Amino acid sequence: xxSHRLFRFPKPAWLNSANTRTAGVYxxxxxxxxxxxxxxxxxxxxxxxxxxxxxxxxxxxVDWIPGICSALGMLVINSIDKSRLSADSFSYxxxxxxxxARLVLFLGFxxxxxxxxxxxxxxxxxxxxxxxxxxxxxxxxxxxxxxxLVMLSSAVLWVAQNMExxxxxxxxx
Amino acid sequence: MAGIKTIIGLSFVLAIGFLLVILSAALFxxxxxxxxxxxxxxxxxxxxxxxxxxxxxxxxxxxGSGVVDFGRFLTGFFVVMGIALPALLYHxxxxxxxxxxxxxxxxxxxYGTIISFTLFFQEDQDF
Lengths: 173, 127
Hints:
A: mainly alpha, B: mainly alpha
Protein backbone atom coordinates (compact mmCIF):
# COMPACT_ATOMS: atom_id res chain seq x y z
CA UNK A 1 0.00 0.00 0.00
CA UNK A 2 2.71 2.48 0.97
CA SER A 3 4.78 1.78 -2.14
CA HIS A 4 2.05 3.40 -4.25
CA ARG A 5 2.63 6.75 -2.60
CA LEU A 6 3.33 9.63 -4.89
CA PHE A 7 4.43 12.33 -2.47
CA ARG A 8 7.26 12.53 0.02
CA PHE A 9 5.06 13.22 3.02
CA PRO A 10 2.78 10.37 4.04
CA LYS A 11 -0.83 10.98 4.87
CA PRO A 12 -1.03 11.49 8.63
CA ALA A 13 -2.53 8.54 10.45
CA TRP A 14 -5.15 10.54 12.30
CA LEU A 15 -6.74 11.41 8.96
CA ASN A 16 -8.03 7.87 8.63
CA SER A 17 -9.63 7.36 12.00
CA ALA A 18 -13.34 7.14 12.64
CA ASN A 19 -13.16 10.04 15.09
CA THR A 20 -11.80 12.42 12.47
CA ARG A 21 -14.60 11.38 10.16
CA THR A 22 -17.22 12.08 12.83
CA ALA A 23 -15.66 15.46 13.59
CA GLY A 24 -15.67 16.23 9.87
CA VAL A 25 -19.39 15.54 9.58
CA TYR A 26 -20.14 17.72 12.64
CA UNK A 27 -17.95 20.49 11.21
CA UNK A 28 -19.79 20.27 7.89
CA UNK A 29 -23.11 20.72 9.69
CA UNK A 30 -21.73 23.66 11.64
CA UNK A 31 -20.38 25.35 8.51
CA UNK A 32 -23.68 24.86 6.68
CA UNK A 33 -25.50 26.33 9.66
CA UNK A 34 -23.22 29.37 9.63
CA UNK A 35 -23.88 29.90 5.93
CA UNK A 36 -27.63 29.42 6.29
CA UNK A 37 -27.94 31.84 9.20
CA UNK A 38 -25.76 34.38 7.41
CA UNK A 39 -28.39 34.35 4.64
CA UNK A 40 -31.20 34.74 7.20
CA UNK A 41 -29.18 37.49 8.89
CA UNK A 42 -28.87 39.40 5.63
CA UNK A 43 -32.61 39.09 5.01
CA UNK A 44 -33.69 40.12 8.51
CA UNK A 45 -31.10 42.90 8.69
CA UNK A 46 -32.45 44.34 5.46
CA UNK A 47 -35.92 44.81 7.01
CA UNK A 48 -34.64 46.00 10.41
CA UNK A 49 -34.05 49.57 11.63
CA UNK A 50 -30.30 48.84 11.37
CA UNK A 51 -30.55 49.23 7.61
CA UNK A 52 -29.62 52.89 7.02
CA UNK A 53 -30.02 53.10 3.24
CA UNK A 54 -32.08 56.19 2.43
CA UNK A 55 -33.74 55.16 -0.81
CA UNK A 56 -34.53 51.89 0.91
CA UNK A 57 -32.55 48.94 -0.44
CA UNK A 58 -33.98 45.57 0.53
CA UNK A 59 -33.25 41.95 -0.14
CA UNK A 60 -35.41 40.68 -2.98
CA UNK A 61 -35.86 37.20 -4.38
CA VAL A 62 -32.82 37.77 -6.60
CA ASP A 63 -30.58 37.67 -3.52
CA TRP A 64 -32.02 34.31 -2.52
CA ILE A 65 -31.42 32.49 -5.83
CA PRO A 66 -27.64 31.84 -5.31
CA GLY A 67 -28.24 30.45 -1.84
CA ILE A 68 -30.98 28.15 -3.11
CA CYS A 69 -28.69 26.94 -5.93
CA SER A 70 -25.85 26.25 -3.48
CA ALA A 71 -28.05 24.32 -1.09
CA LEU A 72 -29.54 22.25 -3.92
CA GLY A 73 -26.05 21.52 -5.25
CA MET A 74 -24.89 20.39 -1.82
CA LEU A 75 -27.91 18.13 -1.51
CA VAL A 76 -27.25 16.56 -4.93
CA ILE A 77 -23.52 16.05 -4.36
CA ASN A 78 -23.81 14.45 -0.97
CA SER A 79 -26.72 12.19 -1.82
CA ILE A 80 -24.58 10.37 -4.40
CA ASP A 81 -23.05 7.14 -3.22
CA LYS A 82 -19.33 7.74 -3.74
CA SER A 83 -18.51 4.10 -4.39
CA ARG A 84 -20.67 4.19 -7.53
CA LEU A 85 -18.17 6.55 -9.18
CA SER A 86 -15.82 3.68 -9.99
CA ALA A 87 -18.56 1.13 -10.46
CA ASP A 88 -17.80 0.47 -14.13
CA SER A 89 -14.55 -1.25 -13.26
CA PHE A 90 -16.58 -4.09 -11.80
CA SER A 91 -18.24 -6.26 -14.34
CA TYR A 92 -21.37 -7.02 -12.32
CA UNK A 93 -22.60 -3.47 -12.05
CA UNK A 94 -23.05 -2.53 -15.65
CA UNK A 95 -25.62 -0.32 -17.35
CA UNK A 96 -23.43 2.76 -16.98
CA UNK A 97 -23.96 3.43 -13.29
CA UNK A 98 -20.70 5.35 -13.06
CA UNK A 99 -21.66 7.44 -16.06
CA UNK A 100 -24.97 8.41 -14.49
CA ALA A 101 -23.29 9.11 -11.16
CA ARG A 102 -20.75 11.37 -12.83
CA LEU A 103 -23.50 13.22 -14.70
CA VAL A 104 -25.51 13.87 -11.54
CA LEU A 105 -22.34 14.82 -9.68
CA PHE A 106 -21.47 17.25 -12.44
CA LEU A 107 -24.92 18.83 -12.14
CA GLY A 108 -24.38 19.15 -8.39
CA PHE A 109 -21.00 20.81 -8.72
CA UNK A 110 -22.36 23.11 -11.41
CA UNK A 111 -25.18 24.16 -9.07
CA UNK A 112 -22.70 24.75 -6.24
CA UNK A 113 -20.26 26.77 -8.32
CA UNK A 114 -23.16 28.57 -9.98
CA UNK A 115 -24.45 29.57 -6.57
CA UNK A 116 -21.11 31.07 -5.56
CA UNK A 117 -20.68 32.81 -8.90
CA UNK A 118 -24.28 34.03 -8.78
CA UNK A 119 -23.76 35.59 -5.36
CA UNK A 120 -20.73 37.46 -6.70
CA UNK A 121 -22.86 38.59 -9.65
CA UNK A 122 -25.53 39.90 -7.27
CA UNK A 123 -22.87 41.67 -5.20
CA UNK A 124 -21.36 43.38 -8.24
CA UNK A 125 -24.48 44.19 -10.25
CA UNK A 126 -26.82 45.14 -7.43
CA UNK A 127 -24.52 46.76 -4.88
CA UNK A 128 -21.10 47.70 -6.30
CA UNK A 129 -22.24 49.08 -9.66
CA UNK A 130 -24.91 51.14 -7.88
CA UNK A 131 -22.10 52.50 -5.63
CA UNK A 132 -23.58 51.74 -2.25
CA UNK A 133 -21.34 52.21 0.79
CA UNK A 134 -20.48 49.84 3.64
CA UNK A 135 -23.58 49.16 5.74
CA UNK A 136 -25.72 48.63 2.67
CA UNK A 137 -23.14 46.60 0.79
CA UNK A 138 -23.22 44.04 3.63
CA UNK A 139 -26.27 42.50 2.00
CA UNK A 140 -24.10 41.53 -0.99
CA UNK A 141 -20.95 40.63 0.96
CA UNK A 142 -22.86 38.46 3.42
CA UNK A 143 -24.45 36.63 0.52
CA UNK A 144 -21.03 35.80 -0.96
CA UNK A 145 -19.68 34.63 2.41
CA UNK A 146 -22.78 32.50 2.99
CA UNK A 147 -22.43 30.75 -0.36
CA UNK A 148 -18.70 30.23 0.23
CA LEU A 149 -19.49 28.64 3.59
CA VAL A 150 -22.02 26.28 2.01
CA MET A 151 -19.39 25.30 -0.57
CA LEU A 152 -16.79 24.75 2.18
CA SER A 153 -19.26 22.66 4.16
CA SER A 154 -19.92 20.55 1.09
CA ALA A 155 -16.19 20.00 0.57
CA VAL A 156 -15.67 19.02 4.22
CA LEU A 157 -18.56 16.58 4.05
CA TRP A 158 -17.19 15.09 0.83
CA VAL A 159 -13.73 14.57 2.30
CA ALA A 160 -15.21 13.10 5.49
CA GLN A 161 -17.30 10.62 3.55
CA ASN A 162 -14.36 9.54 1.39
CA MET A 163 -12.37 9.09 4.59
CA GLU A 164 -15.06 6.76 5.79
CA UNK A 165 -14.74 4.62 2.69
CA UNK A 166 -11.02 4.13 3.18
CA UNK A 167 -11.53 3.46 6.85
CA UNK A 168 -14.12 0.81 6.07
CA UNK A 169 -11.80 -0.62 3.43
CA UNK A 170 -8.91 -0.92 5.88
CA UNK A 171 -11.18 -2.55 8.38
CA UNK A 172 -12.56 -5.02 5.87
CA UNK A 173 -9.10 -6.19 4.82
CA MET B 1 -17.26 7.39 37.87
CA ALA B 2 -20.38 9.42 37.95
CA GLY B 3 -21.36 9.98 41.55
CA ILE B 4 -23.76 12.17 43.45
CA LYS B 5 -21.36 15.12 43.15
CA THR B 6 -21.53 14.97 39.37
CA ILE B 7 -25.30 15.05 39.42
CA ILE B 8 -25.34 18.00 41.81
CA GLY B 9 -22.77 19.90 39.79
CA LEU B 10 -24.52 19.25 36.50
CA SER B 11 -27.87 20.35 37.89
CA PHE B 12 -26.26 23.53 39.23
CA VAL B 13 -24.80 24.31 35.82
CA LEU B 14 -28.12 23.55 34.14
CA ALA B 15 -29.96 25.83 36.55
CA ILE B 16 -27.46 28.64 35.95
CA GLY B 17 -27.85 28.20 32.21
CA PHE B 18 -31.65 28.38 32.41
CA LEU B 19 -31.36 31.37 34.77
CA LEU B 20 -29.20 33.25 32.27
CA VAL B 21 -31.49 32.54 29.34
CA ILE B 22 -34.68 33.40 31.23
CA LEU B 23 -33.07 36.58 32.59
CA SER B 24 -31.96 37.56 29.09
CA ALA B 25 -35.59 37.23 28.01
CA ALA B 26 -37.33 38.75 31.04
CA LEU B 27 -34.95 41.65 31.81
CA PHE B 28 -35.38 43.11 28.35
CA UNK B 29 -39.07 42.23 27.95
CA UNK B 30 -38.29 40.38 24.75
CA UNK B 31 -38.92 36.67 24.78
CA UNK B 32 -37.28 35.73 21.49
CA UNK B 33 -34.13 34.52 23.25
CA UNK B 34 -36.06 31.60 24.72
CA UNK B 35 -35.66 30.03 21.27
CA UNK B 36 -32.08 29.22 22.29
CA UNK B 37 -33.32 26.74 24.89
CA UNK B 38 -35.51 25.01 22.32
CA UNK B 39 -32.57 24.84 19.93
CA UNK B 40 -30.24 23.22 22.43
CA UNK B 41 -32.87 20.83 23.70
CA UNK B 42 -33.57 19.46 20.22
CA UNK B 43 -29.87 19.51 19.20
CA UNK B 44 -28.97 15.98 20.42
CA UNK B 45 -32.25 14.49 19.18
CA UNK B 46 -31.22 13.81 15.53
CA UNK B 47 -28.14 11.98 16.76
CA UNK B 48 -30.13 9.71 19.02
CA UNK B 49 -32.88 9.05 16.49
CA UNK B 50 -30.51 8.33 13.62
CA UNK B 51 -28.27 6.27 15.88
CA UNK B 52 -31.26 4.06 16.59
CA UNK B 53 -32.29 3.95 12.96
CA UNK B 54 -28.94 2.68 11.70
CA UNK B 55 -26.79 -0.22 12.74
CA UNK B 56 -23.26 1.15 13.17
CA UNK B 57 -21.74 -2.30 13.55
CA UNK B 58 -22.69 -3.22 10.01
CA UNK B 59 -19.57 -2.24 8.10
CA UNK B 60 -20.41 -3.87 4.80
CA UNK B 61 -23.71 -2.07 4.44
CA UNK B 62 -22.90 1.47 3.32
CA UNK B 63 -26.49 2.70 3.50
CA GLY B 64 -26.50 2.58 7.30
CA SER B 65 -23.80 5.21 7.89
CA GLY B 66 -25.56 7.70 5.67
CA VAL B 67 -28.38 8.01 8.19
CA VAL B 68 -25.92 8.38 11.08
CA ASP B 69 -24.00 11.05 9.18
CA PHE B 70 -27.22 12.92 8.48
CA GLY B 71 -28.03 12.92 12.19
CA ARG B 72 -24.57 14.26 13.05
CA PHE B 73 -24.91 16.91 10.36
CA LEU B 74 -28.23 18.06 11.84
CA THR B 75 -26.74 18.11 15.35
CA GLY B 76 -23.86 20.30 14.20
CA PHE B 77 -26.40 22.51 12.48
CA PHE B 78 -28.48 22.98 15.64
CA VAL B 79 -25.46 23.62 17.90
CA VAL B 80 -24.25 26.46 15.71
CA MET B 81 -27.85 27.67 15.39
CA GLY B 82 -27.91 28.23 19.18
CA ILE B 83 -25.03 30.70 18.82
CA ALA B 84 -26.05 32.15 15.48
CA LEU B 85 -29.64 32.94 16.46
CA PRO B 86 -28.88 35.50 19.22
CA ALA B 87 -26.14 37.02 17.07
CA LEU B 88 -28.62 37.35 14.21
CA LEU B 89 -31.29 38.89 16.45
CA TYR B 90 -28.74 41.33 17.87
CA HIS B 91 -27.50 42.27 14.42
CA UNK B 92 -31.00 43.11 13.24
CA UNK B 93 -31.63 45.19 16.41
CA UNK B 94 -34.38 42.89 17.67
CA UNK B 95 -32.66 42.18 21.01
CA UNK B 96 -29.95 44.09 22.87
CA UNK B 97 -26.30 43.15 23.26
CA UNK B 98 -26.65 42.07 26.88
CA UNK B 99 -29.53 39.76 26.07
CA UNK B 100 -27.56 38.23 23.19
CA UNK B 101 -24.47 37.55 25.32
CA UNK B 102 -26.50 36.14 28.21
CA UNK B 103 -28.51 33.83 26.01
CA UNK B 104 -25.40 32.55 24.21
CA UNK B 105 -23.59 31.80 27.48
CA UNK B 106 -26.70 30.27 29.03
CA UNK B 107 -27.34 28.15 25.96
CA UNK B 108 -23.75 26.87 25.95
CA UNK B 109 -24.07 25.94 29.64
CA UNK B 110 -27.31 24.06 28.94
CA TYR B 111 -25.85 22.20 26.00
CA GLY B 112 -22.66 21.40 27.91
CA THR B 113 -24.80 19.91 30.66
CA ILE B 114 -26.71 17.74 28.22
CA ILE B 115 -23.50 16.51 26.58
CA SER B 116 -21.65 15.77 29.80
CA PHE B 117 -24.73 14.07 31.23
CA THR B 118 -24.87 11.68 28.29
CA LEU B 119 -21.09 11.18 28.52
CA PHE B 120 -21.21 10.32 32.20
CA PHE B 121 -24.20 8.05 32.13
CA GLN B 122 -23.72 6.33 28.81
CA GLU B 123 -21.75 3.45 30.27
CA ASP B 124 -24.77 2.20 32.16
CA GLN B 125 -26.75 1.57 29.00
CA ASP B 126 -23.92 0.11 26.95
CA PHE B 127 -22.80 -3.41 27.51
